[in-house]
Design goal:
401 residues; alpha+beta; THUMP fold; Alpha-Beta Plaits; 10-stranded mixed beta sheet; 4-stranded mixed beta sheet; THUMP_dom; Pus10-like; tRNA binding; RNA-binding
Length: 401
């Protein structure tokens, strides 16, 4: 061990500060202390080392003298931004040559702590005392980013998104799930879209996001649904699961019940939000990947008269081979999807119209299951009946996840 210490002293020319000494050797020498500075002092005393304390540290260039300044700047920046938060994390950017010197010296021992980790912790300790907030290494509300590449520390506050999860019911037809940019101007605004930049006046996303953006003072939002229904399809029952991502929110402590009331009131009976609660980013991945089933109520027109005996031709459950429907082929990959229909309950409404209650695997296009889509969906209601069928109304009445 004395050889390693000797090599470190020689490599640095003795110009190594007590903090870097403690950081690099304390684990190897099993020296305890309140922080690396205290550990370094103990190592220096224990080994009777002659360090050139009057010189700048070969490794860190006395960067730890700037820690208090960095913490004060971070506190000022947070107060200036008027951010509401409970947890934080510190990250830093250091000069490349400093990182190289640190790597060069720490490679001489097996258990040295990196200089970046020490800096982040020391800034974090000061902010924890000043702000009375706790450090969170997994899902911090904000990240304090300190850049030491300049003469004076430069501080940037990254405000992480706030995630809320719930379900929505779409009670009317004619509203898309998400904002639909105008296809003519791509959202810039033109005569075709009345200079609004979108194809439809409103969307489920905008109806839900409006009050939430206002309450959180977020910059913008992003909507993540567990699938989507067509514009002309209602979403009933217990609703469709969704996560809304609020970007750069200045407020996080929300009265969710009150906000739900505000959303539902402003929606004027078009959309209803249920079961709103806090969640995290991982829930988005879960919603997108989870295997689900959907229950639909479809009204279908039949060419020619339909009789009770015709309904017996409709199989209650079967496997469907469905090629990408013609109506979405311009924006979906052209491939054959295999999906299962778990149950179909048909009922005659009049001589040309039937109601179908369909329970099917998620991802099945129901309108094409009924029409056959010129043979791209097999089997279909059209094929089973031997008569052309067309879906004229469709509601989603349950989603199971």
């Amino acid at each position: 061990m004395k050889e390693i210490v000797k090599e470190i002293i020689e490599s640095t020319g003795g110009a190594i500060c007590e903090r870097c000494l403690g950081r690099i050797l304390s684990r190897e020498l099993k020296v305890e202390g309140h922080d690396n500075l205290e550990r370094g002092k103990k190592i220096k005393e224990k080994l009777n080392l002659d360090l050139k304390s009057e010189n700048r540290c070969y490794i860190c260039d006395n960067i730890f003298d700037k820690i208090d300044e960095a913490a004060e700047k971070a506190e000022d920046k947070i107060n200036e931004l008027d951010i509401e938060f409970s947890t934080f994390l510190v990250g830093s950017t250091l000069p490349p040559d400093m990182l190289q010197r640190d790597k060069e010296i720490t490679s001489l021992v097996s258990k040295a702590e990196s200089i970046k980790k020490d800096i982040n912790r020391e800034i974090g300790k000061r902010l924890r005392r000043k702000l009375k907030k706790r450090v969170d290494y997994q899902n911090p509300d904000i990240v304090v980013k300190v850049n030491f590449r300049y003469k004076d520390p430069n501080v940037y506050i990254q405000i992480n998104p706030l995630y809320l999860e719930g379900r929505y019911r779409k009670l009317v037809r004619g509203i898309p799930q998400t904002k639909w940019p105008c296809k003519h101007c791509r959202g810039k605004g033109c005569p075709k879209c009345n200079f609004k930049g979108k194809m439809y006046e409103e969307s489920v996303e905008e109806i839900i996001a409006g009050p939430l953006i206002e309450a959180t003072k977020a910059r913008e939002s992003k909507f993540h649904g567990a699938g989507r229904e067509d514009i002309d399809v209602r979403m009933l029952g217990k609703g469709r699961p969704f996560v809304i991502e609020l970007k750069e929110p200045r407020r996080r402590k929300l009265d969710l019940d009150k906000i739900v009331d505000e959303i539902n009131k402003s929606a004027e009976g078009k959309v209803e939000v249920l079961f709103l609660k806090y969640t995290n980013r991982s829930r988005i991945v879960e919603l997108k990947s989870i295997k689900s089933y959907k229950v639909y109520r479809a009204i279908a027109e039949i060419e020619g008269k339909i009789k009770e005996e015709d309904l017996k031709k409709i199989e209650p459950s079967f496997i469907v081979k469905q090629r990408t429907p013609l109506r979405v082929s311009h924006r979906r990959a052209d491939k054959v999807r295999i999906r299962k229909v778990y149950d179909i309950k048909p009922k005659i409404l009049d001589e040309n119209t039937i109601e179908l209650k369909i329970k099917a695997e998620g991802g099945l296009y129901i309108k094409e299951l009924i029409s056959g889509d010129e043979g791209r969906t097999k089997p279909s209601i059209t094929e089973m009946l031997g008569k052309q069928a067309k879906c004229i109304k469709l509601d989603v009445i349950d989603i199971g996840i």
